[in-house]
């Protein structure tokens, strides 16, 4: 399980760099400042939580407790919901698409999942040997 979290962190970290570079070089001409800020928030939060997911993988090897497994799953799901919904809203702005309005309410749910992941991480560390 710990290697799965570490591999996911590595791939999502690489994706974060790709998406960050795309935002810096490809989207600046296509988006207004507000939409670009939304995109940058998505990349930033995704990248921050890559380190948390990697920490879960490292800690889970030493302390294979259920709470750390929950933390890893919540970090993954939270990143998908939080950053993913912001990416969809950015796509909506670039494509001048009226769809994806449902993505807006998903963002706070992703934030709640990330908060829950941090709490599970703390509880998991507390239950370790």
Give a verbal description of the structure.
The structure is a single chain. The protein has helices at 2-27, 33-62, 66-95, 103-127. It is mainly α and 129 residues long. It has one domain. The two termini are 18 Å apart. 33% of the residues are buried. The mean pLDDT is 93.
- The separation of the N and C termini measures 18 Å
Count of domain modules:
1
Radius of gyration: 16 Å
The computed structural class is mainly alpha
Q: Major beta sheet, specifics?
A: none
**Shape by Cα distribution:** elongated
Write down the overall mean pLDDT: 93
Oligomer: single chain
Put simply, the count of helices is 4
Q: How much of the residues is beta strand, in percent? A: under 5%
Per DSSP E runs of 2 or more residues, the count of β-strands stands at 0
Regions with pLDDT < 50 over 5+ consecutive residues? none
- The share of residues in helices is over 70%
* Secondary-structure element series: HHHH
Fold blueprint:
Layout: H1 2-27, H2 33-62, H3 66-95, H4 103-127
Helix pairs in contact: 1-2, 2-3, 2-4, 3-4
Task: Provide tags for this entry.
129 residues, mainly alpha, 4 helices
Short description:
The chain has 129 residues and is mainly alpha-helical.
């Amino acid at each position: 399980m710990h290697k799965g979290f570490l591999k996911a962190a590595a791939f999502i970290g690489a994706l974060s760099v790709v998406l960050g570079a795309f935002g810096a070089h490809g989207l600046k001409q296509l988006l207004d400042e507000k939409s670009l800020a939304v995109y940058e928030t998505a990349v930033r939060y995704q990248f921050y939580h890559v380190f948390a997911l990697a920490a879960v993988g490292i800690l889970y090897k030493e302390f294979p407790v259920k709470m750390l497994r929950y933390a890893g799953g919540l970090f993954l799901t939270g990143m998908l919901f939080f950053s993913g919904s912001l990416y969809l809203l950015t796509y909506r702005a670039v494509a001048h698409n009226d769809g994806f309005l449902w993505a807006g309410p998903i963002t706070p749910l992703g934030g709640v999942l990330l908060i829950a992941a941090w709490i599970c991480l703390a509880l998991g560390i507390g239950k370790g040997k």
